[in-house]
TrEMBL record:
Molecular function (Gene Ontology), one example: 3'-tRNA processing endoribonuclease activity
UniProt source species: Thalassobaculum fulvum
Protein name, entry field: Ribonuclease Z
InterPro entries hit by this protein: AtsA-like_MBL-fold, Metallo-B-lactamas, RibonucZ/Hydroxyglut_hydro
Domain Metallo-beta-lactamase span(s) in chain numbering: 18-220
SUPFAM superfamilies (alphabetical): Metallo-hydrolase/oxidoreductase
Keywords associated with the record: Hydrolase
One Pfam family in the UniProt entry: Anti-Pycsar_Apyc1
Record's keyword annotation contains Hydrolase: yes
Amino acid sequence: MKVTLLGTGCPQCHTKRYGPASLVRHGEVSVLIDCGSGVTQRLVGAGCPGGRLDAVLLTHLHSDHLVDLYQLIVSGWHQNRTVPQRIYGPKGTRAYVEGLLALWREERELRMAHERRPNLAGFTAEVVEYGEGPVVELPGLFVDAVKVEHEPIKEAYGFVFRADDGTVAAFSGDTRYCEALIEAARGADVLVHECFIHGLMKPVPGVRTQEGIDAVASYHTLSAEVGKVASEAGVGFLMLNHFVPAEFDREALAAEVAQDFAGPFAIGEDLMSYDVPTRTLTHGDAHWRLGS
């Protein structure tokens, strides 16, 4: 199983950190988690165009996690996708996707008629709504959902991927410190976890207030907490992603996380990958072996 961080950013626009999205590959199976801004470009950069995806999993229905969903559908069609995009999401996903397709119906029909591509099914989507528990079973790969704490969003989930080679990868989704996630991720080979870097965001008159900053922090996991989560779950490797804010001091963040987690961890970057069985971390031309 291989995990690739496609986008490690947040709603802030950033040229190096695109919107939240991750890719899991195992054998011939490819699964996308979330559809943040720029995901279709990052998929191509990772060598897995959206036309090849076996499943799309949405953690919750916040805009920064699904804003490029229609772009994924149309670009997959252009990449010669011949079957509908299979989208798995929490309650409300079906209505959202139906509304999205309805919004673009006229443009889509004109495009299909004008371009005359034979793969019309590839320009559609099928939705499966899930709750806590099993989400999807694919060849050699099983995915379960765990409900996390991202109130006032009630339907928010993390995922646990189990491969037939025994490797396990857990994803936090968006959540505050969450005991249910810790239990679900216990002993996982890798935990991909969001990170709100506490103290960096300051009030700006006319832009944001301290009350607003505190509200955002209240439903994310603070940088002072994420090391504790990994330590309590006993994971083999921690990959930090979905950083709020997108700009921060990496050395300072690493020191903060290391206070609570003695194991190996990475401050995630877009297109950083972790090969779970070989414990190999890659980013661009750089490779790190993290031991046996």
